[in-house]
Amino acid sequence: MTSTFYISTSIAYVNAPPHIGYALELAQADALARYHRLNGFDTFFLTGTDEHGQKLFQLAQKEGISPQTLVDRNAEFFQNLTSSLHISNDFFIRTTEIFHHEASQKLWQRLVEKGDIYKSSYSGFYCVGCEAFILEKDLAEGKCPIHHTNPERLNEENYFFRLSKYSDQIKSLITSDTFRILPEARKNEMLNIIGEEGLKDVSFSRPRKVLNWGVSVPGDETQVMYVWCDALTNYISGLHYERDDALFKKYWPAQVHLIGKDILRFHGGIWIGMLLSAELPVPKNMYVHGFVTSEGQKMSKSLGNVVDPFGYIEEFGSDALRYYLLREIPTLDDGDFSRKRFLEIYSSELSHTIGNLLHRVTNMVQRYCGGALNREDAFISEHDFMNGYVFSVHSSDSVYFEIAQLVESTWNSYKKHFEGFELKLALEDVLKLSYFANQFVDVQKPWILAKQDENELRKVLYSLLELNRVIALLLAPFIPQTSEKMFSQLGIKEPLAFSSEIFQFGYLAKYTLSTHLQPIFPKMEDTFL
């Protein structure tokens, strides 16, 4: 039976076009989804947009348009970014869709049936920018610590969710890693939020007279669902919760919820409490990434340093942007986006280390071997390969045994880093193999062997083709278009799939290269550096 893998991103709030932080989350989730598909998992990948709330309602009023017109316009930016980055999501959910409203209302009703929804008066501080209530102890000199604005003092009669009822159970799930939060620092942060006093009940609705833009509370048209039972429900409504039992049962619970650190307390606390109340399984893992700064500073419209992902995609291509985000931004921590550093990474790693390696090797194979090489050209018989010997045992072949061992160890390290949500380290594994291959070219000097030792030349070039094949395989989750181009130039047409066998050195019996060889990452003009 095929194992399933369900991964979701958080859903993006559509009050403004997407910035580079959202592109990071999409790229991370896509790498994980592609990795699991390549490993044979039946994968479902969900992303989408959060389209309700007071901030959007007020913004629409300010522009003199309907809230639906506003969210339709802005959601398109996020859908375009998803396609521009070649994200392999299976569904893009929008919370203004009718089926999502119905799923949210059905989940609400499940919580009512458990006795976990009640009506009460609420008095507290509310930040419109956060779309959230803030405890007085969390204010910074009376202001929202994120937006640095004075929150509104509200007195409302709302529905509440009995989150406190599930506090101990949530704590136990996190402590035992039954519900695993990575990195460990975020796990500890969530446990500190729960603390000794436990989680408190949360306001679950807003009066319609205050907010007339959202999902209606079942049985009470005077109230609109607050963000918790609306936005968070997307993770199950995207699987057609209460509409398609087969789809929902196939993929739920999620193997990974991928979120930013600013929404940890909502996902690690309120969402888990809602699932427990509804008697639904909780997700297996929650991966939490950090923030992206711009040139060392927090991105801000007033500072004019907001990084537009579309601009970089148009100028350098989607894979170049994906590579930078996954290579340069620490997977589990904050990182910086710098144009200067972007250009350095593009030039040194993409253009030179990865791109130029393929270009040099394929051109030498064309020039010296007519564009074709067989495994036997490297003195690897079918018998030796099938029995794991790789190369016949000669002292002069020791370097090739080392290459075979390096490929195997790279694959093992790469797998370990993916399973631990260390995407940056997994990509660095590929880069190290690329550095080795470039070094191998420089040491072996095929252009000299072409004049002195044709047998050794064929062995060296076959080995370099195999290294390029493995590099292309390992790059597939990160920069899929580049991986496809590499396979095309290597003349490999078989479907991609990961296995221990495919990462064996000497796996491909025959190479017949494409006759259309060109740099996969063209060199930039010196004026850009």
Concise structural overview:
This protein has a domain of 190 residues: Isoleucyl-tRNA Synthetase, Domain 1 (Orthogonal Bundle).
Walk me through the topology.
Layout: E1 4-9, E2 12-13, H1 20-38, E3 42-50, H2 54-63, H3 67-84, E4 91-94, H4 98-113, E5 117-127, E6 132-134, E7 152-161, H5 167-175, E8 180-182, H6 184-194, E9 202-203, E10 205-207, E11 216-217, E12 220-225, H7 227-231, H8 234-237, H9 245-251, E13 256-260, H10 264-277, E14 285-289, E15 292-294, H11 309-316, H12 318-328, E16 335-337, H13 339-369, E17 372-374, H14 382-386, H15 398-419, H16 423-444, H17 446-452, H18 454-475, H19 480-490, E18 510-512
Parallel strand pairs: 1-3, 1-13, 2-3, 3-4, 8-14, 13-14, 15-16
Antiparallel strand pairs: 5-6, 5-7, 7-9, 10-12, 11-12, 17-18
Helix pairs in contact: 2-3, 5-6, 6-10, 11-12, 12-13, 13-16, 13-18, 15-16, 15-18, 16-18, 17-18, 18-19
Plain-language structure description:
Helices cover 48% and strands 16% of the residues. The chain is α/β, with parallel strands linked by helices. It has a domain at 339-528: Isoleucyl-tRNA Synthetase, Domain 1. The strands form five sheets. Strands 1, 2, 3, 4, 8, 13 and 14 form a seven-stranded parallel beta sheet that branches. It has a four-stranded antiparallel beta sheet with strand order 6-5-7-9. Helix 5 (167-175) runs antiparallel to helix 6 (184-194) and helix 6 (184-194) crosses helix 10 (264-277). The longest helix is centred in the C-terminal third of the chain and has 31 residues, at 339-369. It is elongated, with a radius of gyration of 27 Å. Residues 390-395 have low confidence and may be disordered.
